Amino acid sequence: MKDSQKTTKRRSSQPELSRRDFIGRTAAAVGAFTIVPRYVLAGSGQAPPSEKLNIAAVGVGSQGITDVERVMSQNIVALCDVDDAYMAKNVARVKGGFDAFPKAKKYRDFRKMLEKQKDIDAVLIATPDHTHAVVSMTAIKMGKHVYCEKPLTHTIYEARQLAEAARQHKVATQMGNRGQAAEGPRLICEWIWDGAIGPVRQVHVWTDRPVNWWPQGIDRPKDAPPVPETLDWDLWLGPAPYRPYHPAYAPYIWRGWWDFGTGALGDMGCHSFAPIFWALKLGYPTTVEASSTEVNSESYPLASIVRYKFPARGDMPPVELTWYDGGLLPPRPEELEQDRQMGNDSGGIIFIGDKGKIMTHHAGRSPRITPESKMKEYKQPPKTIPRSIGHFEEWLEACKGGKPAVANFDFAGPVAEVVLLGNIALRPELKKKLAINRLYWDGVNMKVTNLPEANEFVHYQYRQGWSL
Prior knowledge:
By secondary structure, the chain is α/β, with parallel strands linked by helices.
């Protein structure tokens, strides 16, 4: 169901969470290599490291099968997708096809899978964004460990709920922003905390999406072709409002539609915001504002700029974080050598401090102080942050009672909330009012304080028969 390939080439009551708690929880999550998980202390009978986990995969598209291949050291006991043919096509990419998974039973409905198959220890979820939360929550409530692709959820409310449920049920979790396991984010943290560029007051981050990846800025198709026999369209829609099937949505070009995806910001924001949150110890922003190309109620705009303002944190000053997509770029640093590219082809990040700048590739990879002469002069500090054993390996270890994964839901949930807040600022229903107002955000209570209409997009009414 989920596909990362190019396509056009291609409310229940909430416990209060203070900003201090938010920052502390985020810092604890990313520093979790030194923390013993609560489920170990509780003695909840997790599989010991010597045993293999029984893993089920929900959403066996291009991204889904890629994820499955990364955990084939364990027992793959179930494969679930709403489209039989699409699942078969992607499983065929693995040597041996379905024969490579002799223990795996096949399903269409994840609910039936979890109800019938009692041997499942953990669930890997790579469905479209709008079904991340309902699949994840069902698994969590049944005590299953969860790996969910990014963005964690489709709405801010869902992200808050998942993080809370994971803590309550003491399960191991991981969001699929695998860049958090790389060296780059750790170097960024160590350099900034060492004062390499002084206090950071601005950050610019950009992506190449959605250009040449999937369509945006378009209206809903008018025709209604027949549903393929292999696809359960009602199940694909899940909690989203009903609409007729069209190949413009499934199987892999759903990202640009408001009802199903989270646009360029949702797709890439969780990758690139994560190292920024880690290094700058960010909590909730106080305001967010956005500008974009023409936007309608069906799909995201072709290009946008989203600007967040975060308050001071400890000895760190207030910081402004600006996001660019659709081919838009931040100003080129004056000190950047003329023959050097900003970031890489997928995007990049620029941290602007009082004493200099750090530029990275997409998701914080390959950080360098600019200009290169300053990078060569800089005496790097000791590597104080533990290095990762590998993105998927972290999750598997956590499932077996080891250290929490760095991108567990305590960290990933708040990052996803902030990413999704940017999409609220892009909503066409708010565009006229946002032309003269920025959104003021009360993160503790998940509420826009100056424009009540905006709170309608913190969550939405699920289709009948679906709930968290």
